[in-house]
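Table S5 (text form). Sequence records supplied for joint modeling of the two-component complex.
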Amino acid sequence: MFTRTRRPPLHDSAATAHHAAHDNPALLHHFAEESQQRNAASLGMWVFLAQEVMFFGGLFCAYLIYRLKYFGDFGAASQTLDIKLGATNTIVLIGSSLTVVFAVWAAKNGRRSMLLINLVLTLILGCAFLGIKAVEYRSKFVEHHVPDLGFHMDEPTHIPGHPDIPVNQRHAEMFFSLYFIMTGLHALHMIIGIGLFLWLLIMAWKGRYTPQYNTPVEIGGLYWHFVDLVWIYLFPLLYLIDRHP
Amino acid sequence: MSTPAAIVPAVEREDYLNKEYGVWSWLLTVDHKRIALLYLASVTFFFFIGGIFALLVRLELLTPAGDLMQADTYNKAFTMHGMVMVFFFLIPVVPAVLGNFLIPLMIGAKDLAFPRINLLSWYLYIFGGSLMVHCMLTGGVDTGWTFYTPFSTAFTNTKIIEAGLAAFMAGFSSILTGLNFIVTIHRMRAPGMTWSRLPLFVWAHYATSIIQILGTPVIAITILLVAAERLFHLGVFDPKLGGDPLLFQHLFWFYSHPAVYIMILPSMGVISELIACFSRKRIFGYNFVALSSIGIAVIGFIVWAHHMFVAGISLYAALIFSALTYLVGVPSAIKTFNWTATMYKGSIRYDAPMLYAFGFLGLFIVGGLTGLFLAALGIDVHVTDTYFVVAHFHYIMVGGTLMAYLGGIHFWWPKITGRLYPEGWARLAALIVFVGFNLTFFPQFILGYVGMPRRYYQYPPEFQVLNILSTAGATILGLGYLLPMIYLTWSMRYGKPAPDNPWHAAGLEWTVQSPPTTFNFPQEPVVTWEAYNYDEIDDVHPHEEAPVAR
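The corresponding structure-token record, covering 795 residues in total, follows.
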């Protein structure tokens, strides 16, 4: 049994008669059939994600330009990031994408308990990611690596592989500016994703999703995968390029 | 309320306007037609505000001395004029008003794909607009609408953050409108409404939506970076912090040049509808006009650096961007030639919407050709940051977008309101706008060419005659814009009731009643004809008897 939570549309008499034929209450008034509604929602999310690609794209472009311009200084600053925590977070996020895939499969096949378990797992992994990120942010504060708050980077003192060239503090500070903007924006998307999945969990708990109607799980999953994918690019760009053991 | 049938002869038909009354029936509506009217009221409000700033600028420039305002005030006046007009009028005006109202009607849908996102986009626009008004009232911004760094992030002490946030919200409103249009055009077309049967208005909006989706997020992130640099001194664009101001200009124009096509493409869609209807002919070269919209959208993304020829980009980059800029003239020219060819041997009627379309053609040709002057590296270096540039983009943005918008508003006014507008007044207004516009902006081409820079509040006395002409023109233009505001508002109450299809025009929107019902179509329409089938329509209605009020 699925009921709609949306505000009832303003019916006029002709449309009501027309829609009496629909027996699916999750079908909105202006769609002719379920497949049309599902395809519209899915395309809508894809278009939204295209927008997100360009949103992050501007930022990635700025980062890459400075990464090339101040290659050595950015490389030195990137040495201070904790690669173990970063790698753990990458694995955590990939794991969460796996549970999202299981959740979507479960929703499509009417496996309610499997859906609930995987939504909860996704939420746990998402929160774990944010927790680890918070630990990393904290150590940056402790080490005075936050721009404009008494920034100074003591180690490394020289550009990796060039013991004769000292690190330019200003450029290292720029690295951390971009680091905080990029990871911060990503974390914001994670928080929104967690909110979204909490809502999916409540609706799944109420039994709203069936093999016939599970579009929200599917497009919520698309969003989650996208945010995951952003991190998959952030990790090598920030942590791995020109990394020296 | 029941009235004896003998006194009221006909029962009033139910439509989207009289279905519900009250403030909340408007503020919580999800009907695309009501949301279009919400936008109509709000963009008109912002046009009025932007217009006041324009008049202040023109008044200051009446005399060579800086006598009406001080330099700082003048900087704020032209900045607020630009920001309000670009972000809160020109970008939303045609898509959010005419597009919102017409796209579902034209493709045979009951509504846009996401009605509540549509309403959300209006609220985002209103919140952004309120923030912009707040910013104006508490001191304004003096950077010019372009927010150039490092002035905007490190030097000016005006309301950059507020104005940036306002533009950011207007941007997301625009993104959501574009998203809605793309999904609607893909998924909501009636049976038989194939891509090759879509009205060119819909094609133009599809191309516009692509730009809105792919361009606007870049300015959004750029504004965030400006805010981060200004608030937290995170170095991105400020050279003192190691940043590069040129990167800001690249990111800014990556959106803001395509934004010009967000402004002009929907207007080109309007013009295609007007010219076909008032020439009683199918648009010449339908496929080329449709695909040239997509062509403009695509090429428009790779010409941005022509705004930066004197900013210190490499000569080779400048050469390439110059060549690409010439290329964008090709699809624009295809449209213009095809409109002209459509009129050839057509039975042309000179109703007010067509007068605006003629005005559009003339002004767009002048604006477009001077765009080619600016694409040429040598001339661009000579006229950069002069009134030549000002005149050029006003010919496109005001002469193009606004003429088409006014033409479109007149054309679809009977459908939107169910009332006819006074035709005589409308023709007079079209004439006044055309004359006033040219008087305002043509002298600016000459001023710019002989060396008057933009954004200065004083100038040498030898420029005064042309400046007086320009200010006089602006006054006439202002009158020309006030007239439609007055008689269109008047006609909402006192105009003659409109028939369903006063122009005998082609298109699904004219097959439903005026004004339409909430769900547009009594039954889902099935389309079996091409767009602009004026030959078939005129076989049924010999066109001389079109019932428009004189």
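Note: Chain A has one domain: 45-240.
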